[in-house]
Write a structure and sequence with these properties.
Layout lengths: L4 H6 L11 E7 L6 E7 L10 E6 L2 H15 L3 H4 L5 E6 L8 H8 L20 H19 L2 E11 L1 H12 L6 E5 L7 H11 L7 E8 L15 H11 L1 H16 L3 E8 L7 H13 L3
Parallel strand pairs: 3-4, 3-5, 5-6, 6-7, 7-8
Antiparallel strand pairs: 1-2, 2-4
Helix pairs in contact: 2-10, 6-7, 7-9
């Protein structure tokens, strides 16, 4: 007779779970110091005549499986869901299973936050964004195009939080690199002035239309009802109000739409009853559908 949990565990035959269509491998940029783990999902169906669309997911160690499984599930019935079979490529980092605070601060930013009062208590090295953009455009995207039949006019980049800020900053600097940009709860407070200044120049040279989907949670400027018992609730709430997550996202989305005009389809949404940590899960279906319309 099994008397405790340890005995029960010893009698369970287990095996690891493989996710169909997914793999993970190491890829270096043109600079050997640039080393990333690439996460990849490829549909089991043959590619359409124009090739597969591609979603590029930042912070892949944390977010890739969520996006890949959502695409896999919804694309089984594209006529019902509006999401067609697509390749999902995640950009992550070796040796970790979640967010990599130091690397993401370095890769996603041009430098320190514009306002010192908005800095986090611990701020790792910043300012590697230009090299990361080169890795995307010069190494990763050609690598994927060389492996699979892809639709080069249907490539979307997706990021949450600081990665969402990077998505918008990338659009403002290189609007033609991707056809779609998805920014979920973007940390625009990091350096909004530099971002919008870049758009004024780069937007004039945009040759093909793009799509931008920006979203934030209803509870991103104050504590949600279920967060009232947080020990640091007062300070946390004050920081949220100062960072203006909702206002920044709405204002920047509107400004991008005004500057790009007919060259861009722009949608801004608030995810009701969601917080900064939950917006990606709540917004993903709508984001996929808008970024790659049928």
């Amino acid at each position: 007779m099994l008397n405790n949990a340890a005995d029960r565990q010893e009698n369970i035959v287990s095996e690891s779970i493989d996710v169909a269509g997914c793999r993970r491998y190491r890829l270096e940029g043109k600079d050997p110091a640039q080393c990333y783990d690439i996460f990849e999902y490829v549909p089991a169906t043959p590619p359409p005549p124009e090739g597969f669309p591609v979603f590029y997911v930042l912070d892949a160690n944390a977010d890739f499986l969520l996006v890949a499984e959502t695409v896999r599930r919804l694309s089984r019935r594209p006529s019902a869901t509006g999401v067609r079979p697509s390749i999902v490529i995640g950009i992550g980092y070796p040796g970790i299973g979640d967010y990599h605070a130091d690397r993401r601060h370095f890769d996603f930013t041009r430098g320190p936050p514009a306002d010192d009062a908005l800095k986090d208590r611990h701020l790792p090295a910043c300012g590697g964004q230009a090299d990361f953009i080169r890795f995307l455009g010069d190494s990763l995207m050609p690598h994927v195009a060389g492996l699979y039949d892809i639709d080069r006019t249907a490539q979307v980049v997706l990021g949450h939080s600081l990665a969402g800020y990077f998505v918008l900053d990338l659009l403002c600097q290189c609007p033609g690199l991707f056809s779609g940009y998805v920014a979920v709860s973007p940390s625009i407070w990091w350096d909004r002035p530099a971002m919008l200044q870049s758009l004024e120049t780069a937007g004039r040279d945009l040759e093909r239309p793009l799509r931008l989907y920006t979203t934030v949670g209803e509870w991103e400027r104050e504590l949600a009802p279920w967060q009232g018992l947080l020990q640091a609730g007062h300070d946390y709430g004050a920081l949220r109000r100062k960072r203006r997550m909702i206002e920044n996202a709405e204002e920047v989305s509107r400004h991008i739409a005004e500057v790009l005009g007919a060259k861009a389809a722009v949608r801004f949404e608030i995810q009701m009853n969601e917080d900064h940590a939950s917006t990606l899960t709540a917004a993903l279906c709508g984001a996929l559908r808008f970024a790659l319309p049928r």
